[in-house]
Amino acid sequence: MAAPPSTSIGDRIIGPEHPPFIVAEMSGNHDGSLEKALAIVDAAAETGVDAIKLQTYTADTMTIDHEGPGFRIDDPDSLWFGKTLYALYGEAHTPWDWHAPIMERCKERGLLCFSTPFDESAVRFLQDLEVPAFKIASFENVDLELLGQVAQTRKPVILSTGLATLEELDQSVSALRDNGCQDLILLKCTSAYPAPPEAANLRAMNALREQFDALVGLSDHTLGSTVAIAAVSLGGCFVEKHFTLDRAAGGVDSAFSLEPDEMAELVAACRTAWSSLGSSRLGPVDAERGSLVFRRSLYVLEDIEAGARFTPENVRSIRPGFGLPPGDLPKVLGKRAARKIERGTPLNWSLIRD
Q1: Bridge-partner residues for 320, per DSSP?
Q2: 286-353: CATH, from 3.40.1360.10, 2.130.10.10, 3.90.1210.10, 3.60.15.10
Q3: 150-164 pLDDT, tens digit each
Q4: Which residues pair with 112 in a beta bridge?
Q5: Cα(43)–Cα(263) distance, rounded to whole angstroms?
Q6: What's the whole-model pTM score?
Q7: 3-state secondary structure at position 34
Q8: pLDDT at residue 1, rounded to an integer
């Protein structure tokens, strides 16, 4: 199946024939400060991204305040080692009364703003704020009830596919489409923080596109911009990347977030990568037509009298490219000059007779 040609979020058209749609994920990098959250919006606007994405939850809508097994992060390699889930979500959440001022600042700066809901109350809240789209996080992509509630808003849905098997994704996509979702973008995602580039498996974007007849992109947790650029070169039309003002200042997701200069470089590089895709047509393009002169062609290497035969000694394929194609040399050798020809003359058929 062929993926749809495009969809839209707000006034932005998203699809293979349009520059990649690039989202700066604020997450919890505001560090509990609305002033910093607004500064993140301002900095993101300067980088050239299309949108800011928030996350809409509270600690209580995500989990319970509990110390038992599974409720504390016990992986020593985790950025959040030792924290309880409740404490982490309490620290990282974006207060709901901040959403409206953040969205208003985005509007002022020419950015779209949408969010990831984590429960039905968040869906209702965001719907009241008239968000242009909904994002589903990887850890929620198997929550079919939540997917149905989001789909019923009839807003575009961006679904991260981290952790999900093909069978699970089939159920997730069906839950969305069966409940009215018509505009769907599937994001390849590796749910590790940070994610190693070798685990990105970007070729899976082709499988997602073909299996689900959907636009595809990348939710990127790797360091740097290389993987995002590669995703665009493989046809990804949507890139989401965590964003912070300063990694050194800390923040729950800062370790795998881009700073403003880096985000600006990613935006420029992704759009350059997209523009380089061009078309599948072969043959010289306008930018290289001037170089045709540097092809080889058939030239006379020494003065030739009228009626003299052309030989390997007096005709050869050299640069520049104003003479006959090199492939015509066997047809020329042994024939006679139609008139006297001076050394350095490009051969053409008017100079040749049997």
Answers
A1: none
A2: 3.90.1210.10
A3: 999 999 999 999 999
A4: 51
A5: 10
A6: 0.89
A7: helix
A8: 45
